Sequence to fold (327 residues):
Amino acid sequence: MALWLVRAGAHGEYEKKFLEENRIYLTWDGLSHDLAALKNRGQLRTLLEQVYPDAPKGRITNNLGQIWAFSHGIAKGDWVVLPSKQKPAIHVAKVTGDYIFNPDGDDPFFHYRDVEWIVQDVPRTNFDQDLLYSFGAFMTVCQVSRNDAEQRIHNMAKNEWKSAGMIPSAKKKAEEEGAESGEGLEDLAQAARDQIAKLIIARFQGHGMARLVDAVLRARGYTTYLSPEGPDKGIDILAAPEPMGFGEPRVCVQVKSGDSALDRPTLDQLIGVMQNVQASHGLLVSWGGFKSSVDKEEATQFFRVRLWDQGDLIDQVLAHYDKLDEE
Fold:
């Protein structure tokens, strides 16, 4: 069995479709031909040159390898990782179906494989950095094999999706061989954010993350009340503008530093606490992100509540870094 990286569009625009339909799609525009009928890569190259006559030869070669992998390389039982573009998380699936060509599908959804989502929304910080480098490859479809990646993902599945560490043989091989060309072309910006995320979670775990959010709010001009460490009755921070905090909006903040995605009850609790303290707005910060039940409420609560996941908090720290306390 193998481990594959598959992306849901350049900007994650197809991610919801992949997750809801329990499928992974090959999302090349205009490729409305049955790839199963092709016997070899040469036939695929000829087809791609016909469909994309203006494409440079290098792009044709690059696309050929990815398209062939999806149609002829992936097999039932293989595992797939789908890095989210909507949140700092990774989804993992098991392939349950053969390659299917649907001539009646909307462009670009002509080609798909059925999958079973084993887990969704695993925080990126749960994965070792070398795996994140591989998941950041500039490819839409590719096999991830460096450093015994497949076995390590299986080990994480048995360990509640926590890192079990690099296998000794994989570590030795990585030191000897270095990065493979396909997986080594990582997204450097994402790699930098991953390093920042690991630094934050190492330094600001637990109540420390509430202190970090408090510092961000003060850097943005709010006067704040930070609850002491311990039971907080759903109030981590209260914030409002003006020197004494008597201005509007009045914001009630809950901060969760765990690596599990938050469900709807936590959002409902925040809304209830907002009423109790007469706050006009709420901010829910979850390092582990949010489950779909919360995401679905984002539009409904848009004028009352903001949701910050790991990526949003990092954005805020970077945007206001020069105004943060030295601590």
The first strand starts at residue 3 and ends at 6. The first helix runs from residue 15 to 21. Residues 204-323 form a domain with the Trna Endonuclease; Chain: A, domain 1 fold (CATH 3.40.1350.10). The CA atoms of residues 295 and 307 lie 9 Å apart.
